[in-house]
Write a structure and sequence with these properties.
This protein is mainly alpha-helical. The chain contains nine helices and no strands. The chain has a domain of 112 residues: Tetratricopeptide repeat domain (Serine Threonine Protein Phosphatase 5, Tetratricopeptide repeat, Alpha Horseshoe).
Length: 172
């Protein structure tokens, strides 16, 4: 083979290599969970698995109002206002597991991992230990522990999450 007959083959090979290099640099769309906020990563799966036994405590109307205002502030991106409203609600009902969990999720959004884990743990301790709130507790603790590089404890939290799902008793 002479030099002139090799040049088209080299150009073709170079073009193929360039296309392969460019396609290797292309990015994939992130997984749907990556687009979610940390609080949504905690709440959404628990809401989807709501079929099991659920326990809801009675709630003071003032606490309900403060909680709704905190959720609106959170959705508007005002995490400071959401925190203040939840702190006020917690002064009225300091042992409300949903309030404690909501505060844990706000702390998670703010990157306050230890506080998030602490609030979620307190919510689990006073909560029903079944259903959606239990799942949110363990998901929050797992995410917080992952962010704190405590991967074994995060894996433990994910295992305990499975025990939250209990089928309701059959009715006659």
């Amino acid at each position: 083979m002479n030099r002139k007959s090799i040049q088209p083959i080299l150009r073709f090979s170079l073009a193929i290599g360039l296309v392969a290099l460019i396609s290797a640099c292309a990015t994939q769309a992130p997984a749907p969970t990556e687009n979610r906020s940390l609080a949504e990563q905690v709440r959404a799966p628990a809401a989807e698995e709501r079929s099991g036994l659920q326990v809801y405590p009675l709630r003071n109307p003032a606490v309900t109002e403060l909680t709704e205002a905190a959720l609106a502030a959170e959705q508007a991106g005002d995490l400071d206002q959401a925190t203040l409203l939840l702190e006020r609600a917690l002064r009225i009902q300091p042992r409300d597991p949903e309030l404690l969990q909501h505060m844990a999720e706000i702390r998670l959004e703010r990157g306050e991992w230890e506080q998030a884990e602490s609030f979620a743990g307190r919510s689990f301790d006073v909560g029903p230990r079944v259903g959606e709130i239990c799942q949110r507790n363990w998901r929050t603790m797992a995410l917080a522990r992952e962010r704190l590089s405590r991967y074994d404890e995060a894996a433990d939290a994910r295992e305990r999450l499975q025990a939250c799902q209990i089928e309701p008793p059959t009715r006659l």
